[in-house]
Amino acid sequence: MGVTLGRLPRVIGCALLAGVLCVGTALPASAERDAPEVQPGALPPDVAAPFQELTGQAGDLAYRTQAAHRLIEIGGEDAELALAASLGPAYRAEVWQATLDALNTTRLEMPRGDLPDVLVGMRRRLPADLEQSWAAVLGRYELQRIAEELEVIARDQRAPLEQRRLAIIGIGHHRRAFAATVLMDLIDPGQRGEVQGWAFDALATLSHQPHLGRDRAAWQRWWDRAGGLNRTEWQRQLHESLLLLTAEQRAMDQRLRDRLVESQRQLYRATAEEDKPAVLASMIADAIEPIRNLGMDLSRRRLEDGGVFPEVVRTALRTALRDASPQVREQAAMLLGQLSDEPGVGIMADRLARGEETSGAVQRQYLLALRRIPNARAVEPAYEMLADRALQAEAAGALAAAAQAGLVDESTRRRVRERVLEGLVDVQIPRADIVLLLGRVLSDSDREWSRVEGWLDSSDDRVRDAAARVWAGAGRPLEALARRCDDPVIRPVALRAIRERGDQPGTLLAIALKRPEDNAADLELWHQALVAMAARVPPARLLTAIEEIRQYDADTRPVRLDMLTRAIERDGRPDPPDEPYLLLLLARAETQVLANASDLVVLDYEAALPFLDTLRPEDRDRLYRGLTAAYLAEQNTDKALDTAKLVLTDADGNPRPAANDDTLILAFVEAISRANAMGDKALARDTLAGLRELLGTGIPAELGLRLADLEREIDAAQDPPPAPGNGNGNPPAGGNGNGNAG
After folding, report:
1. How open is the CA angle 253-259-264, to the nearest 5 degrees?
2. What is the mean pLDDT of residues 639-651?
3. DSSP codes of every residue in 291-310
């Protein structure tokens, strides 16, 4: 297609018509290609080796870029196929960056084949940090059809703004007058504000005239001069503009660098601490941009060092939000955001609402600040920015914070929901901020909660964390989080939420089965969540969970005791005590046995004694046996025998048949041995005699032998040494008979 230089009329009617006839932003059939899928084994060895280096798991960016350069040097259809394949969705952005860098820096002829068309199609999945590299590669091809196809998208007012933005960036890297024609049309006041801003930036890239900024009249004067040049004159003009721009910038940079060094030495380092805020404010307001940047840098360091920011500095930073330099505005917004400066964030919200800020980098800092301090005036601009891929994550974070603060009305919630869901089509792993935002705008009954639950199992840690936080914060059933408490990312979120509001038995059992093994903070959270839930679930389900907790090798007695105590004390003692309450008392008493807290054990058992009829026979047996063991631990043999009699004799007082392995009898045997070992032969004899009397004549042979052995051990044990004296039972001279000096 021929192109007439000068003020080009609509000579691209065919291409534009093709774009209009296509659905959405789809290009003509030849305009874009999906990246091919290539297996290294299908390539010749000399191509397969660098292709594997480029796309493999190992190697940094420089290593991959070198491999891409080798493919360009090899050339031919197979190498072009490999380069195109490396730009496919199967590979990481680091691989794409390496291929784009190689294509942008090669001095050889640009590879062809399907590679240009694959690059055009790549725009639909292009990370923000690769946009300029991608556009520069397209510009290096200098293919008229590519420029025309990008024009179709750039002009299409029905196309998504993100696609129009990328097309405009791409056009700005084409060094032909045709590209300038398109961009001059797009700065027309009738175009959308965002489109005009992108077109101004693209013109600056194309022409090397950034000083013209957003001055439409200045650009028209430039175009009046340049539009009539022939091709050779056009290229010479671009080259001379670049040389002049480079020379001016180098000279200015050197002069300002010298002044900045002097300024830093004389105005800040030598300034007394109490006067430094005033110096900072002066630097931030300086007429020379590098000095303002120095003031921003010193302010950032002050913030990192924990320095205070008096009002004089904050005021200067707020004023800098309207600075002519995007870099200064960006740093001011970053600092005010990190300072959580509410007036400053209010200014940012107002500038967004009025469309006064056009720099994407500055807008990003605005949105990050609005995460900390949500503002209702920024809700609508943030909603619009959801369509901008470069700002989508930050916009989502700001909207999520606003929704959580109650600043998003129901109508906007619905619009946000729909826009987010549109952006999730064909997305396997969403951004964490998008997950958080979607959860904040869903209603309780929204079916999309199933999607959020699915993200709890994402391979991306940030996505799982976001899904868990939004699930917990939205009041969703907590069992879904509890089942995933073995995930160290989800665990702290889940345990905090369960500690605050967990009340379902299934949730309690799920976390009981997932004790943290290697994190003290998580282990404490686990303990707190279990204890908190103990007061919210039925006693029977609580006891089931406690039985599961007992299975761990670690000592879980403290958490079990705390759980039982919380459950026992949650409503006070019922009057009269019911079976669930009594079972909790029994369980706590049995747990306290491990602590040798016999007095506390006895208190719990004795509290249950008057209400035995409420318990099942097997639980009454538990009580008698536990209480007997507690009395034995207290060396209260009489009470121990009286209680054991209720187990070991029938209703008529006749001994029941004894078993060699009866735990109650073995508790007596252990108590006898312990008393004898401690030298209390009298206690040992009394306990043995009481046990024999209790068992009567029906003692099994094995048990009888064991009791006989105990008796011989008692007889063989030495008596306690006599009290110090003169051998005749009298105290020594000067004594008072109790071992103390008179």
Report:
1. 120
2. 85
3. HHHHHHHHHHHHHHTT----
